[in-house]
Amino acid sequence: MTVETKNQPYLFQAKVADKQLECVGTAKDGQWLVLKDPVTGEKREIYDAISGAAVCSLKHGDTEILSQMNDFAKQSAYTFCANFSNTAAEELAEFMCSKSEGAFSSAMYVCSGSEANEQAMRYAMQYHIEKGDRKRYKFISRVNAYHGYLVGALSIGDNPMKPLLKKMLLSDDQVPKISRLMPYRDQGDLTEEQYCKKLLDNLEETIVSTGQDEVAAVILETVSGSSIGNSVPPKGYLDGVKALCDKYGALLILDEVMCGLGRCGYPFTFMDPEFGLTAGGPDLLTFGKTVGAGIVPLSGVMVAPKVVNAIREGSGVVMGYQTYHSHYLNCSVGLAVQKKIYRDNLIENVREVGAYTKAALKAALKDSKVAGDVRGAGNFISVELVKDKATKESFAPELKMHEVLNQKTFAKGIHFMCIPGTNGYEYVDDKLVMNGAHLTMAPAFGFTKTDADLMVKVIAETFAEIEKEYL
Ligand SMILES: Cc1ncc(COP(=O)(O)O)c(C=O)c1O
């Protein structure tokens, strides 16, 4: 017997009090979703400016990839990674390493960004163990960072739900925090160089005070993602972090799950000539989302020769196996997606049309009293909403301005990611208070200037309405 739920969903995720809008297909060129109201049955088309959650590197329903999937499925046999490798995973790893300019010599695959980050944490631990150093067990990360929702990933992150789940997470001692990276709010009168030094001093003080010989790794988002909206590091920052990691024997893990693999206009985002590493790469890098274009669940870790060699020359065996590590069908699709991205120069398109979009947004919002900051890289761009541009004060949290942003832009036919807590969160009398709000875009890599114009128009109209209604 099926339990009657009336207007409540059977699916137990996100909003469970009411049924959510259901996606029933795609429209136009594949960047548009068809959404059905589960109660009225009414359908509408909406431009997916955030490609789910910055996931769809290709447009939804890419016919070329979908038509190949049948063949991939026919060729696939499930194998367990402890016993056998598979051609698709091996080829994808080689393909991705070949785009890293020598930074990485290996890769592995899991199914989510959270898993990828935990995998990278285990690799860091194993690296030190193989080198005969068993004292290192701490992971330094930033305040307001997001690294996923598994126990380890949530521990290194700083999600507003974290305080409630604290008892099941790693101890604070094991995951020391450094300050957030947010030039818009924190640079003040400092030059870029001075701000960079301030951040690096904070990292060095944290490494030393927590115990420099206990730090396994420092883990950072190269360009911050959902939590504070696409803050880009100051020039020299990543080189400085890498130098400190090397100085104190910790590994550097860059989390590029949301910002990487072309989203910010380069094969890996640490390669950006403006703010990236000037030589080499991190020791480990996590990726996810766009690698499988939302068609299959796929994520993973890129591994630098230093880490690979330590394990090859040591035990020769990577610790730990999971059933769906480097799954054949997922990796086949990932490889086809990656090849298409490079064949069609889609990363260049992200860079060019992304720069056009950011410039157009800045111009359109120049006189807005409530558009505090336009920031980001590639087509991963956020606009921070403020009540007062001069003081950068946010609107009162109880106004839930992220919902206002969402409703207004959605009513105009575009789906962005509209997030609260841009300026942090706190618990006041046991109640969660999220300060600030921002809107983020991350469209498919093949988006056009026409798409950009549409997004800019809708954002400009939305901010103008908010200015009129809320100031
Ligand atoms: C920077 C970053 N790391 C990790 C994750 C977790 O990825 P997943 O949701 O696939 O577990 C996310 C997800 O948004 C992310 O933005």
Précis, in short:
With 471 residues, the chain is of the alpha/beta class. It contains 14 helices and 17 strands.
Q: Could you explain how this protein is built, in words?
A:
The structure is a single chain. It is globular and about 65 Å long. With 471 residues, it is an alpha/beta fold. The protein starts with 21 loop residues before the first strand and ends with a helix. The chain has 2 domains: 66-343, Type I PLP-dependent aspartate aminotransferase-like (Major domain) (Aspartate Aminotransferase, domain 2, 3-Layer(aba) Sandwich), CATH 3.40.640; 346-470, Aspartate Aminotransferase, domain 1, CATH 3.90.1150.10. The protein has a 7-stranded mixed sheet with strand order 4-10-9-8-7-5-6, with helices on both faces. The chain has a 4-stranded mixed sheet with strand order 1-2-3-13, with helices on one face. Helix 8 (192-210) runs parallel beside helix 9 (237-248). Helices cover 36% and strands 17% of the residues. It is built from 14 helices and 17 strands. The structure holds pyridoxal-5'-phosphate (PLP). Pyridoxal-5'-phosphate (PLP) is lined by residues 53, 112-114, 117, 146-148, 221, 225-226, 255, 257-258, 288, 299. Keywords: Pyridoxal phosphate. GO terms for molecular function: pyridoxal phosphate binding; transaminase activity. One of its GO terms (cellular component) is cytosol. Pfam families: Aminotran_3 (PF00202).
Question: Can you give keywords for this protein?
Answer:
471 residues; Aspartate Aminotransferase, domain 2; Aspartate Aminotransferase, domain 1; 4-stranded mixed beta sheet; 17% strand; binds pyridoxal-5'-phosphate
